[in-house]
Every structure is written in structure tokens, then in C-alpha cells.
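#lab-general

N.A. 3:47 PM
ok so I finally got the sequence cleaned up, no stray characters, all 142 residues accounted for. can someone with queue access submit it? mine expired

B.Y. 3:52 PM
send it over

N.A. 3:53 PM
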Amino acid sequence: MIQRYGLYTAWMLAVVGTLMSLYFSEIKHLEPCHLCWYQRIALFPLAIVLGIAAYRGFLGIARYILPLVILGFMLAIYQVAMQEIPGWNPIDICGGGPSCDEGIVVFGRLTIPMLSALCFASIGTLLCLVWYRSMPQEEPQN
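B.Y. 4:20 PM
back already:
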């Protein structure tokens, strides 16, 4: 089941994340901070590459895409930590423009970086499962 629908599900998550990101910036007119831009840089190519891989059935794409997913996840977790831990900002990434530690609540208690971290974690988990299931299984030697 994971081999058949794992890539499609990861692709759909990337597409939904991309569309939500564009919705917040283009329709709701929320200007993205620097960390949000970096997360977008990691997310937007996933919508294209995972779509092509899912269409062609290339399960081996996971090993090439995982570094990008991990980078996006780490950036999102860093931004969540900046928002949730008062006064914690070890690296001042935000220059001019909107502040990275400003939490905009979207769905009840969730902020945009929390949704981004959830999206990257889900895509990464699916890709790991697809990659694991696509590896040839060794038969026990007698």
C-alpha cells in the first residue's frame, strides 16, 4: 500500500503546503519572513519533483529528496522554537521585514511554522517508508 500510494500522498502534501503558502501570501497578504522564505525554497520544488516521481513510479527518489525535506523541517522547527520560547533567538536571521518570531495563529493553536513542520515531517516519514519498502529484501541464507 505504501509503495503504491506513498509517493502520491507525499506529492499531495507538498502541493497542499505550496498552495497554502501562496494563499497566505497572495490572498491574505501576509508577508513571509526570512525563515518562511527558506522553508518555501525547500517546499516548492517538492511539489514538482514528487509529482514527476509519482507519475513515473520512481520510488528511489526518496534518497535524493530527503535532504531537502530535512532542511525544511529543521528550519520550521527552529522557527517554532523562536516563537514558543520567549526571548530565545540565538541567530538573528530576520533583518528588515516581518519578524520571524511573530506567531500568526491559523487553526486554533497552530501557527504557520507548526503547519510547515508537520508537512515536512509527514513528507519525510512517507518518503522513508517508500524508500524502505522499495529496497530489495534479502532472503535468509541456510
